Each structure stands twice: as C-alpha cells, then as structure tokens.
Design the sequence.
C-alpha cells in the first residue's frame, strides 16, 4: 500500500495478463452456454451465480455447493472466476481509498471507496443500526466506479481526459470493481448501506451495453438496489433516450458544469454535438420514480462559471427544465497540467445561497481524497 498523494508510476505494469476463460460478468444464460460441455442443470448454474455474485468468490475451487470433482473438471477445462484484482491502494487522510484494479489483459482501472458517503450534503443515507464487524469505522459507503479506461469526451477540467480513450470495460470489469472492493472492505450489500456512483473514469453512455449489463448484475445477484446507484453522463443524448426505456436503472446525473452553451462549449466540447437544450429534452423522457430527482453536477471553476449571473442562468435553466432536479456543486479539484483555478470559497457559498434562495435545491459536495487524486475529475493512472 502507498500512502499520500504522489503516485508511483512503476506500479503501472503491476496487472499481468491472466489466462483462461473468466466467468465473472456472465449472466445466467451466458454461464449456461459457456459451460455447455458439462451439461449442467439450471440449479447448478444458479449455485454458480450465487457463488460468483452473492459470495464473490475468487476461485472456482470456492464453489462449495459444487462437488469437488465438478470444480476440478471446470478448472481443468481452463475456466476461472476472473475477478479483477486490486494491485495498488492509495489511502487518503480522510479515509478515502483509491485503487488501481487490474483487468485480465493487465490494463488497470481506477475505483474509489468513500466511507461515510461521497460528501454530498443531502446524502440521505442516514446512520442505520448495523451488525457489521466491531471495530469498523464506517456505517455506509459510496463506491465510485469506472466504465472505460480513459475517456474520449475531453472535458477540459478533467485529468482522465488526458489519457484519451484506451478501451471500453466489459460488464464483468465494471461489476468486478465493486466485487473486488467489497471483498477488501468485508462489506455486504444486504447488511451495509452501499451506494454506487458511476462517475469514475469514462463516459458510461459511450459504453452503454456493458454498463447496463453490469447494472443488471449489481442490482440482481449482487444485491445492490438500483435506487442506490447513480450514473453520471456528460450529456450523450442517444444514451439518455435508451436509458429512459430501461425497466431497471440507476438514478441519473447530468454533468452540466456551465449555465449556457457558450461557456459549456469551452469546457466540454461535447456541447457542440448535443446542446444543453437537447440534453434537457432527452432527460424529460425519463419516467421518474416517486421522490426521484435528476441531479445536475456543476463543477465550479474559479472565474469561469462561478459568478452570480451564472447562478441566475442556472436557476432559469432548472425552471425551464421543469422536472424534479437538484444541483450538486463541486469546487474544482486542481490537477497537474489542467489550467483552471479553484473557486473562492465565498463564491461557492454565494452560488449555493443564490440557488437556494430561488427555491432550487443545491448542495456542496465535500472534496474526498484530494491528497491522493481521488476527487472528482482527478482520476488518471499516471501523474506527470
Ligand atoms: S469528466 Fe467524465 S466525461 Fe468528462 S472527460 Fe472526464 S471522465 Fe470523461
């Protein structure tokens, strides 16, 4: 484990390619097909599912509901669990942990564990009685999950953007980040209050099918309610429209970050493809559940989008949108090679107050893990 902020780049080759066929990430029918040569009855596949996703085993040998002989045969045929593996941990003074998690091909992805939530003031995860192991210092936690290695969206304030897009993650690699971290933390979704935010590296809606397959695994056999998941998009309109049709889906957050198209184009070039009005029109198609609100994430950049007139424009924008919404304000986190300045704390406060005075719910997200580059917009494998 490494403590402190500076990332040692020598560990980047730590994940080595694994051989064999991974089972983690496959849905029931796919497991049945993959293991076709063994002619397993449906109940054996269900046992495998429970072991993979409920117990989060790391080796075929741990499927204790299967006879030893079957486990040996399956292993001998080259099958393995294939859970991504944590190869490096960076621990913040605030308890946040950032992980490099190795995929089967040796590529690494980043995942962040935030005990006691993600710092949003309106986090409704009230403390609950728990029979969690004694000595534990957290009662609830939020996991920030990546959906791609790198990102193609190129938001100007984001360190991940500097990687470009390396590749999409598979459903198993997305859900596997969650499984690996739950195992490390000895957390149990049925007992502990675990929230997921798909706000790590990548744009989930540019890897839509794998992302939604992962959601179905997480909400199904892994036991994390969809209502405790939030996906953030930079505003990929076709993705939002598909998402609106999903019977099982997380909550939606739009990474807005600007009060109008002119400013947004300067910091999020994707605006040239889909303007704010197009994004809002698509979000309107989302059938919201009772008490559900859409979140607008708004990263405050000093002198760029944090002035009172910007707050006024955001107020009109939310009023025009006319669906239940809230604003999450995030003071920009500095990173090497990104030419913005942090907003003045007084400006952050004034921005929030202005929104609230107009009746727009607005919350300031406390920065988590800033010292280990785990905070919003700071995920990047190599620090220059
Ligand atoms: S903020 Fe999100 S969508 Fe934008 S470049 Fe970074 S990872 Fe991609």
Sequence:
């Amino acid at each position: 484990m490494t403590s402190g902020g500076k990332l040692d780049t020598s560990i980047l080759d730590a994940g080595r390619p694994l051989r064999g066929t991974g089972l983690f990430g496959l849905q029931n029918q796919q497991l049945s097909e993959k293991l076709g040569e063994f002619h397993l009855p449906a109940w054996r596949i269900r046992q495998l599912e429970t072991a993979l996703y409920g117990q989060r085993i790391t080796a075929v040998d741990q499927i204790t509901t299967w006879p030893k002989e079957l486990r040996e045969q399956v292993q001998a045929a080259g099958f393995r669990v294939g859970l991504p593996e944590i190869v490096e941990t960076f621990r913040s003074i605030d308890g946040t942990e950032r992980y490099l998690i190795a995929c089967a091909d040796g590529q690494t992805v980043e995942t962040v564990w935030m005990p006691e939530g993600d710092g949003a003031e309106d986090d409704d995860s009230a403390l609950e009685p728990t029979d969690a192991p004694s000595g534990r210092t957290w009662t609830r936690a939020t996991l920030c999950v990546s959906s791609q290695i790198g990102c193609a969206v190129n938001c100007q304030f984001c360190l991940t953007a500097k990687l470009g897009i390396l590749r999409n993650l598979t459903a198993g690699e997305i859900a596997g980040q969650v499984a690996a971290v739950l195992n490390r933390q000895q957390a149990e979704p049925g007992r502990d209050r675990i929230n997921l935010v798909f706000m790590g590296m990548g744009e989930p809606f540019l890897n839509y099918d794998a992302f939604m397959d992962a959601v179905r695994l997480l909400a199904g056999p892994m036991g994390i309610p969809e209502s405790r998941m939030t996906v953030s998009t930079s505003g990929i309109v076709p993705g939002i429209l598909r998402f609106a049709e999903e019977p099982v889906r997380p909550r939606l957050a739009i990474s807005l970050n600007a009060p109008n198209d002119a400013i947004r184009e300067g910091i999020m070039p994707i605006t040239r493809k889909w303007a704010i009005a197009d994004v809002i029109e698509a979000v309107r198609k989302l059938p919201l559940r009772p008490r559900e609100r859409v979140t607008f994430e708004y990263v405050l950049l000093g002198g760029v989008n944090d002035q009172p007139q910007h707050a006024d424009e955001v107020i009109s924008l939310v009023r025009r949108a006319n669906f239940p919404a809230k604003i999450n304000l995030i003071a920009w986190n500095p990173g090497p090679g990104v030419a913005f300045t942090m907003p003045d704390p007084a400006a952050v406060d004034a921005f929030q107050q202005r929104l609230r005075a107009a009746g727009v719910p607005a919350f300031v997200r406390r920065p988590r893990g800033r010292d280990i580059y785990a905070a919003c917009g700071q995920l990047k494998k190599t620090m220059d």
The radius of gyration is 21 Å. The chain is about 25% helix and 20% strand. The pocket of iron/sulfur cluster is lined by residues 151, 153-155, 158, 160-161, 201-203, 234, 377 (CB under 6 Å). Residues 171-185 form the longest helix (15 residues).
